[in-house]
Specification:
single chain, 439 residues, OB fold (Dihydrolipoamide Acetyltransferase, E2P), 11-stranded mixed β-sheet
């Protein structure tokens, strides 16, 4: 029997963590005698959804077990979710979904894609679960069932990455994390090309540690299970590590930014990738944010680079009217401004101006003698009535290519520059020979 277990919406901005519940379940289900057929999946969902909790991540555990312990597995999962979810938060609405089967139906896969790239309803999720013969358990308004269903449907068959997550003991969770920052920088240097977004060197800030009271001490993301395991063991921590787990994930893949659309097709809460022309000079508004207007053949839309994006705003400020760019982001508010996650310069506009010619005799700059009168040299006084203004082009500092915010301002799903060219098109299951979780 293959059983797929989806979990979502158990955390809150003030505590809790769905990946921690997954880590607890890895230990408990292993003790029950199940066989994990893949690493736990950590699926980041559409980041533009306003009712998300913290990282908008859902979990799927895929296990092989004999039919006789199915009831015990489900009981263990339910007890863990009920014990560790943060029910005090209004926006926390846990969901659990169980699906039994050797293959994931295409309807579940299609649903998973919609949840990453758009908006779906709870009714859609419940109807689908009923159609495929799954079981759903929801708490409060049950919205977590949507993400739990999507986690089961997202098999990470194409591009994916990995994350080694270490968790702290309960007595430390309201204390400052004790991390040797030097070890993080040393790991980042040693594992360059195999891990990503460990540090923000421009801001001199480590990125592997969260800042809230949740159970995570640190998380290292990378291209393979081997890489993140090696990197995780290089981090020096000044407190007890309660447990750690390796997840397979869609983080750093741009999974939400795959659909190119026109401005007229932009919807609130949906990701968008649009090829546009810049039609206004970027301006700085209160707070240090940079706004500019763009258009395509279907309409106009404002784009915004916000203050936390760092030097990315300087790239945006260098845009001029006529630049052809591809903008990536999403719309959250009623103002219908596209919040930029990245920008790709396709064709910079030329800055062309007309200037007086140079003197053919001495090389000095000439001056006009009036309309149709030609030019005379200011230096040697040479005159030529047949000369006219010449065209010159000013150089642009803006090069073709993709520009991203500083790493500390990138979303979980945003593909960092160092991952370009490393995208995976297939997945062949091969679990580590070394332990991929502890305990």
């Amino acid at each position: 029997m293959l059983l797929h277990i989806g979990l979502d919406d158990t955390d809150s901005p003030t505590g809790g963590c769905t990946t921690y519940i997954a880590a607890i379940l890895v230990e408990k289900l292993t003790h029950l005698g199940v066989n994990f057929i893949d690493y736990p999946h950590l699926i980041r969902l559409n980041p533009n959804i306003p009712w998300k909790t913290r990282g908008n991540g859902s979990i799927c555990l895929r296990v092989e077990a004999h039919e006789g312990i199915e009831g015990e597995i489900k009981k263990t999962v339910i007890e863990a979710v009920e014990a560790f979810s943060d029910y005090e938060c209004e926006n926390t609405n846990p969901g659990i979904v169980f699906y039994k089967g050797d293959d994931i139906p295409m309807s579940l896969k299609d649903f998973a894609l919609k949840v990453v790239q758009g908006v779906v309803s709870l009714e859609d999720a419940l109807d689908l679960i009923n159609d495929v013969g799954g079981t759903a358990i929801g708490y409060k308004n049950m919205r977590g069932i949507i993400g739990a269903t999507a986690a089961i449907g997202n098999c990470l068959e194409e591009d994916h990455s990995y994350e080694f997550i270490a968790y702290r003991s309960p007595e430390h969770r309201c204390k400052i994390r004790v991390i040797d920052e030097k070890s993080v920088y040393e790991m980042d240097e040693a594992m360059r090309g195999e891990t990503f977004n460990n540090v923000d060197r421009k801001k001199n800030r480590i990125l592997i540690t969260p800042h809230g009271p949740d159970p995570v001490i640190f998380g290292v993301r990378g291209e393979s299970a081997e890489s993140v395991r090696k990197a995780g063991f290089m981090i020096k921590v000044g407190e007890e590590i309660e447990r750690w787990v390796i997840f397979r994930t869609n983080q750093g893949t741009d999974a939400h930014l795959q659909k190119r659309i026109k401005i007229s097709d932009v919807k609130r809460y949906y990701p968008a990738v649009i090829e546009v022309e810049v039609v206004s000079k970027p301006k700085i508004i209160d707070g240090g944010h940079v706004i500019f207007q763009t258009r395509d053949e279907t309409g106009y839309i404002d784009c915004a680079a916000y203050e936390p994006t760092g030097d990315f705003r300087e790239v945006v400020r260098s845009l001029i009217n006529g630049d052809s760019v591809r903008v990536y982001g999403g719309v959250k508010s009623a103002q219908e401004t596209l919040n930029l996650e990245k920008i790709e310069v396709l064709k910079p506009a030329r800055i062309v101006k007309m200037e007086n010619p140079y003197c053919p005799r001495c090389g000095g700059r000439m001056e006009s003698m009036g309309r149709g009168g030609g030019f005379r040299c200011r230096k040697c006084r040479f005159k030529d009535p047949s000369l006219s203004k010449i065209q010159s082009e000013s150089p642009r500092s803006l090069a073709l290519g993709i520009y991203l915010p500083t790493p500390s301002a990138q979303r979980h799903l945003t593909k960092p520059l160092e991952r370009y060219g490393k995208e995976k098109s297939t997945y062949k299951l091969r679990m580590l020979e070394e332990p991929w979780h502890w305990p």
